[in-house]
Amino acid sequence: MDFSFSYYIGLSGIMVFTISGALAALEHKDHHHDLFSVFFTGFITAIGGGTLRDITLGNYPVSWVRDENILWAIFIGFLLVILFPGILTKLRDELFLFDTLGIGIYTVIGTRIALDHGVNFFASALLGMISAIFGGVIRDTLMNEVPFIFRKEIYATACLVGSVLYIILNAFDVNANWNLVISATVVVGIRVVAVRYNLGLPKIKLFD
Amino acid sequence: MDFSFSYYIGLSGIMVFTISGALAALEHKDHHHDLFSVFFTGFITAIGGGTLRDITLGNYPVSWVRDENILWAIFIGFLLVILFPGILTKLRDELFLFDTLGIGIYTVIGTRIALDHGVNFFASALLGMISAIFGGVIRDTLMNEVPFIFRKEIYATACLVGSVLYIILNAFDVNANWNLVISATVVVGIRVVAVRYNLGLPKIKLFD
Amino acid sequence: MDFSFSYYIGLSGIMVFTISGALAALEHKDHHHDLFSVFFTGFITAIGGGTLRDITLGNYPVSWVRDENILWAIFIGFLLVILFPGILTKLRDELFLFDTLGIGIYTVIGTRIALDHGVNFFASALLGMISAIFGGVIRDTLMNEVPFIFRKEIYATACLVGSVLYIILNAFDVNANWNLVISATVVVGIRVVAVRYNLGLPKIKLFD
């Protein structure tokens, strides 16, 4: 598989995740809002999911330890936040699209890496999803909040659908680049539709 | 050591941990209670402790990545919760016994795996305990609560006693299957007695 | 590099981190304050950062699994807390100096280990800092609080400056023992000055 396409998209995803994490720190009431805490929250958001995936797979060296470009992408995202915090906050709607593109790509890359490690389909699908969502989960946990995946409209589920689709298309020998585009697009599509129409999964009632 | 006995008990433990985690999500006030968040909380509760143990030991592939049956056990537990949430909530007392059996087995299996990696006794005892309790710790942390191990009657301590006992009996060449049964029973026994009589460890007073 | 000097300082750091973690548990209002939870909070505080560093690097076996002395240092710290909780609470100012020495040493050792794994400079600096701060981050997260690194005066930043300095001096072939002493001293110095004069990093204003 040629990773050059997904590689640069992936770096953009890292940068956008950094921005969304850093902005979350800026907007948090109990936060110091100093340079470090904004940087660190962005960093954790950007690398958390991929790091957990690599650690769970024993896929060493972990991506950001191996590839300095990831850290540069984080640094650029951080610089953008401290230089233009007001503008980026107003651009949230546009950033949402980037973030959604990011989780689409993360999902597919994570699933691919798991499959390349010979992991079974079920676990590969979960690891694809974990790659995409766990940076945000760790960020929210450190901010002392219930993670957004437990509060938001369909989010992690979109990733799970995308990773399952990737695995199915992969089993049918669909070209890897096409598979990447199709599966990531499905993640993005589900997420966009869910947000626009405020769709959620069925809820389970405990007391009826 | 013949793992077939402990293997099937272990799978039951996975399923029961999934149920207890999923029910905790259902009962949490800030939770979305949708299908995904209930599934994911169950999943994390079931695999958290073993995953942390394997990652700390460098024991790759991690159990649920290697063995698809673990994921099926989780899926069955999840199905039971979404099909019979009311019944399972009422069965909590009975589930408590399963959960307790689960931590007994988890403790022993975790200790065994650490010893098989040539880990010193002190660290093996801690890793046995971590296998049993950390799924619940991560669950509580994600739910934005102080983990139950810091609030409940004797819980982790029961695991620690069980893992130390396992290591001692192992040093005296007690048959591994007997050792599993004896040590897990001691964990269960301590836990049951502690809950019934509301026993706790001595508290440390800071101001006297 | 001769680690014998840093080794014993490192063990002292482990002990002091255990004490600071155990005291934090004692002072927490939602805590059980029993023997186990005090021990476990101390344990997590002491080994969290180094464990995360080793796991991220794939540096197996993880330090406390390999070296029983680390667990003894933790046990001694724990004993001191349960025997003399009142005295240790009053000694907080003096302990602060130990804790600060601890993060200085942790930073340098963590950076050294990352460099020895052939990790790039940027990631090595981050891993040095992570070694020093993440035990406390995990402790605060388990205690259901926003981590101190997001609240306190310059703390993690001091570590980051120290690890960058270590890497620079290392690139100039400065003797490793001198480098350890100089870089750790700089961490301690920045931290002491920051606390004394209540210095923080510039804050980022979101709304102006």
From TrEMBL, chains A, B, C:
Residues 9-84, 97-170 form the Glycine transporter domain. It comes from the Bacteria. One of its GO terms (cellular component) is plasma membrane. It is a multi-pass membrane protein. Coiled coil: none annotated. It is found in: Cell membrane. Keywords: Cell membrane, Membrane, Transmembrane, Transmembrane helix. The chain crosses the membrane at residues 6-26, 33-50, 70-88, 95-115, 121-142, 154-172, 178-199. This is Membrane protein. It comes from Leptospira terpstrae serovar Hualin str. LT 11-33 = ATCC 700639.
